[in-house]
Amino acid sequence: MRKTVLGVLVAAVLALGACSSGTAGDAGGSTAGGGTGGKVSVTDSTGTVTLPTTATKVVSLEWAYTEDLLTLGVTPAGVADRGTYGDWVGAGPRLSSSVPDVGTRAQPSLEKIKALDPDLIIAEKSRSTANLAQLKEIAPVLLFDAYTPNTKLVDTANTNMVQIGTAVGKQGKAKQLVGTYRKKVAAAKARLAKAGKAGTKITLLQGFSVDGQPNIRAYTDHAQAVQVLTSIGLANAWHGKDSDPSGFTSTGVEGLTPVSDSTVLYVALKSDNPFTGTLAKNATWQNLGFVKAKKLHAVDPATWFWGGPASNGMLIDQAVTALGA
Amino acid sequence: MSRTGQATAPAATMSTVERPVRRPYRGIAVAAVGVVLLVGLAVVHIGQGSAGIGLSRLLSVLFGHADPDALAVLTGSRLPRLTAGLVTGVALGLSGALIQGATRNPLAAPDTLGVNAGGYLAVSLCTVSGIQLGVLPSAAVAFAGGLAAAGLVQLLVSGGTMAPGRILLAGTAIAMAGSSAATVVLILNAQRAQGLFFWGNGSLLETGLTRPLLLGLVVACGALLAPLLARPLDLLALGDDTAESMGLRVGRIRLFAFALAVLFSAASVALTGPIGFVGLVAPVVVRLFGVRRHAALLPLAALYGAVFVLGADVVARALLSASGTGDYEIPAGVVTALVGGPVFVYLARRVPTGDADTGAAVTVSAPASRRRYAMVVAVGLVVLAGVVLVALGLGDVHLGVGQLVRAVFGQADQLANGIVAFRTPRIVAALAAGACLAGAGVAIQSVVRNPLAEPSLLGVTGGSSIGAVALITLLPTAPRWGIPAAALVGGVLALGLVMLLATRTRPGALDPTRVVLVGIGLAAATAALVQVLSLRAQLQLAAALTWLAGSTYARSAGDLSWFVLPAAVLVVLVLVSRTLDLLGLGDDLPRSLGLPVGRTRLLVLAAGAVLAAGTAAVVGTVGFVGLVAPHLARRIVGPAHRRLLPVAALLGAILVVVADALGRWVLAPNEIPVGIVTALVGAPYLIWLLRRQKVRTDGA
Questions:
Q1: Count of CB atoms within 10 A of residue B432's CB?
Q2: Higher per-residue confidence, A199 vs B465
Q3: Residues B40, B42, B46, B48: what is their CA dihedral angle, to the nearest 10 degrees?
Q4: What percent of chain B clears pLDDT 90, i.e. is strictly above it?
Q5: Cα B273 to the chain's mean position, in Å?
Q6: What is the pLDDT of residues B623-635, one digit of tens each?
Q7: Contact (Cβ atoms closer than 8 angstroms) between residue A134 and residue A14
């Protein structure tokens, strides 16, 4: 149902965009292969986008794609939510503060983007239902989909990296980065198996405080970060329902009792860590198996769970270290 | 809080005014029922939870069986939550009983007077600015914020008559201003503000007994002082004059009662965040049982407050676990609002507002001369043109005048042309929205004969959001244009419902203030319903909520076609302006002139609803324009609708275009939704307007 309505919405927006603009972004997708006469064909969630030439001035409206660009060695012409990017995305090269900020990821400033005169915009599907038509008037748009719940998000992240690489003329480097990532997965899997940790049941948590009270997010199979962990041979212990499409259940301390015997990996800000703060004094928390058995491991708070291969690799390194493999 | 002022307030404002009769058995019976309910709910409450540990296991722990899991859940989760519910319920019940006693107004409560909002705003400001407060300091901050809000409301009451309805409008305005301010702060700190959507709905989620017990101690200390007020409040119920003549120092007692009520509210806000309508409903229920004397009323209100809060939490969690989502958290405040909104409406139907007879509360001013009118329109058009030009230049990218003029004719460079192309549909949307909302205000006000009757205060926008959200959750395959269409239908239906509920006996006899009060109650209930619906289907809702947040972001020429119908309605209204004038004359005169009053009122209201909901369909919730623009217009050109409507539309257009430009420019590249900007301007205007009206009534 969810996918259908989104599909319909996006289709409607696309139709609107096609009518009003008819820019390069909509060029027909049948001529696969591309490359001839300087043209570049890239595949996104909507089909094939043909660019007149490889893009040099790229505006990224989602952190994952900002990360991909930086990892490829491309400085974006503009990014959304620049100010807090560094706090949340620790993997990959740092984002220079000289890169222009184009506003929030939810409502980026169209004027600012226009003023930057980009030759490519990379956007996230679920955030762009309202402004897609106007974005396409500015420049060709690559629309990726990393938030519609599914179980192939890691593959999608890898594919997106290669597509972005193709668009900016660094397809070789992108493929090499994805290859390195796949080797990392295989190596981690082997190390865990060798240490007898294959199939370890893990729960991935995030914690923060609202009004002094800890809020806990437990990540489900629809979260990319969980899919990263299962790809190295671990098993997700959490079977709650998604309370958010990006793949987590909002729950309280009591809700964690079903996963009491699993190993817990968590992220929390240094300034606001309920797992070592308010929760540490809580009887229910203290009685949980993973607390008593000290199978509770902090992950660097700047590990971005919805990132590209760099963020995913960072998570793998930490998981392997935490499990002592 | 002057004595002379309150003395003239209508004495018979509520049923408490009946002479207190000693009915000891009734009080005992009500107490017994309350205790049984509370114990029953507490038992069910403690057995609920996502760990799947039920009552039987908890009981066996009590009987000494070793069950570490059950014990841990009991002390680490169940007991803290139960205690938090009890403390907050008791505090709110007491707070409400004190405020209702002090104001003799059954609709007054810490939430409806803006006290909770003031306290929570203060706490939120601290949280967002990164100040980590302990329990008691945060209660102190909430106390200060609550006092400030109560003080503002009192400022409006002081020195003159203030009918109960008016006090509530002042409280609502203050609460709206507070929540708008909080939204701006939250927008500035998006990454910190995780629970933005649930702002203003407290949750009982609690992880330790320290906080609830500490604040429980504060409440207990306050509760020890409350009995001192029992007898004075009984006397106060007889009216200020009588109470004074019996030796009561009315002003001092009222001050004391308010201070204590704010303390209770602050303790509750610091513990759980604002949980709405408990302070309103608990004392009312007790009074419905026939308990009137405050010696019994105060403790019973506390008891029933706790029953209400626990009951809401029990129902919320039972619903969640029935729908297979037991490990979610639903704020108890959502459920109390869902129950409390209709109770508020029920009460609003009964409470005397003091406006029933004076009806024509519309500002009267001398009609302007034709020359003056022509000049006003000319100046208005020039200002509008200027404002539009400035708005075209303002934003992320600054455009100079020369560039702008060239861009308008498509002669500028590609960038300027493009930016003007983005801004133009947004400015046109803002302009049309302003004009339509002002027209909606004039239409509704001409029927209701109340300058405060504003579309968003009358539940129109609440109805629009329900319409959109219901369509998205119940019919997810509907096409995109269905959202504005559903918003339109929902808004029209909501206004119809408000009118139906506000009409007490004979059709057509609309008490101006009552209409607004019913609208406020309905708006609270619809807001809670939207939140319940949104627990499912969050992905789709994101689209609907951006739609309804009151913004012109990314609006394109295609969206503007939704204004065709409202614009046509606006033109028709100007054409039939004489009929609108007649409606202002009351019931009998127009009828004797041959006007089918009932049908005309209905048609004009429907026109207002189409104007307001049609606007909401394009730009979402933009509040207070329908109040500010018509009122200003009336002051400038007088009450004749042929002149009033165009001038109001002009002013509304100017107002929204300016608000939209400010919202785009101030925090660029981030945006403040235009609806927030108009609320920040409009709420103080409403307060000022209330105060002016009061002064006028006094002078008369």
A1: 26
A2: A199
A3: 60
A4: 22
A5: 16
A6: 889 888 998 898 8
A7: no
Q: What are the tens digits of pLDDT across the range A229-239?
A: 999 999 999 98
Q: Which helix (H) or strand (E) holds B642?
A: helix B641-665
Q: B487 near B464, Cβ under 8 Å?
A: yes
Indicate yes or no: CB of B480 within 8 angstroms of CB of A13.
yes
Assembly ipTM: 0.78
- Give Cα separations from B182 to A18, B98, B625 (angstroms): 39, 27, 20
Q: Within chain A, what is the greatest distance between any pair of CA atoms?
A: 68
* Min Cα separation A264/chain B (Å): 17
Please, which residues bridge with residue A263 across strands?
A202
With a cut of 50, say whether residue B12 has pLDDT above it.
no
Q: What is the Cα–Cα distance from B191 to A80, expressed in whole angstroms?
A: 13
Residues A199 and B541: their CA atoms lie apart, in Å, by 37
Which of B385, B390, B415, B387 minimizes the C-alpha distance to B400?
Answer: B390
Residues A164-223 have pLDDT tens digits of: 999 999 999 999 999 999 999 999 999 999 999 999 999 999 988 766 677 788 999 999
Phi, psi of B178 (to 5 degrees): -60, -45
Please choose, from the candidates B125, B126, B130, B173, the residue with its C-alpha nearest in 3D space to the C-alpha of residue B149.
B173
Residue B47 is inside which H or E element, if any? helix B24-47
Lookup result for tokens 């369509």: B471
Beginning with the edge strand found earlier in the chain, give each strand of the sheet holding A58-60 in spatial order.
A78-79, A58-60, A120-124, A141-144
Using DSSP's 3-state secondary structure scheme, residue B191 falls into coil
Residue among A1, A2, A5, A287 with most chain B CBs within 10 A, to mutate: A5
| pLDDT band, very low/low/confident/very high, at A44 (cuts 50, 70, 90) | very high
For B249, the token pair is: 């120092």
pTM of the model: 0.80
- Check CB contact of B217 with chain A, cutoff 8 Å: no
Token digits of residue A223:
């979260």
Gap between the terminal Cα atoms of chain A? 42
Whole-angstrom distance, CA of residue A132 vs CA of residue A128: 5
Supply A119's token pair: 């030759």
CA–CA separation, A104 and A121 (whole Å): 15
Q: Is B412's Cβ below 8 Å from some Cβ in A? A: no
Cα-Cα-Cα-Cα torsion B622, B627, B632, B637, nearest 10 degrees, comes to 110
Q: What is the mean pLDDT of chain B?
A: 80
Looking at chain B from residue 431 to 490, which residues have their Cβ under 8 Å from any Cβ of chain A? 472, 476-481
The pair of structure tokens assigned to B500 is: 């139906």
Provide the token pair at B40: 């029953």
* A316 or B486, higher pLDDT: A316
Other beta carbons less than 10 A from residue A293's beta carbon: 11
Closest C-alpha to B203, from B140, B120, B259: B120
Chain A contact for B166, CB < 8 A?
no
Q: What radius of gyration, in Å, describes the C-alpha atoms of chain B?
A: 26
Go through A60-71 and write b for each residue having 16 or more CB atoms within 10 A of its CB, e for each that does not.
bbbbbbbbbbbb
Measure CA A125 to chain center.
Answer: 13
For the ranges B9-18, B540-549, B560-569, the lowest mean pLDDT is seen at: B9-18
Q: Please state whether beta strands A201-210 and A120-124 pair in parallel, antiparallel, or not at all (unpaired).
A: unpaired
Q: What is the pLDDT of residue A35?
A: 42
Q: Given an 8 Å threshold on Cβ–Cβ distance, is B396 in contact with A134?
A: no
CA B34 to chain centre: 30
In this predicted model, what pLDDT tens digit does every residue of B34-57 receive, in sequence order?
Answer: 999 999 999 999 888 877 778 888
* Burial classification of residue A321, based on how many CB atoms lie within 10 Å of its CB (0-12 exposed, 13-18 middle, 19 or more buried): exposed
Task: Specify the pLDDT at position B259.
Answer: 92
User: How would you class B23 by CB atoms within 10 Å of its CB: exposed for 0-12, middle for 13-18, buried for 19 or more?
Assistant: middle
Give per-residue pLDDT as tens, B271-303: 888 888 899 899 988 988 888 899 999 999 999
Asked if B422's CB is within 8 angstroms of A110's CB, the reply is yes
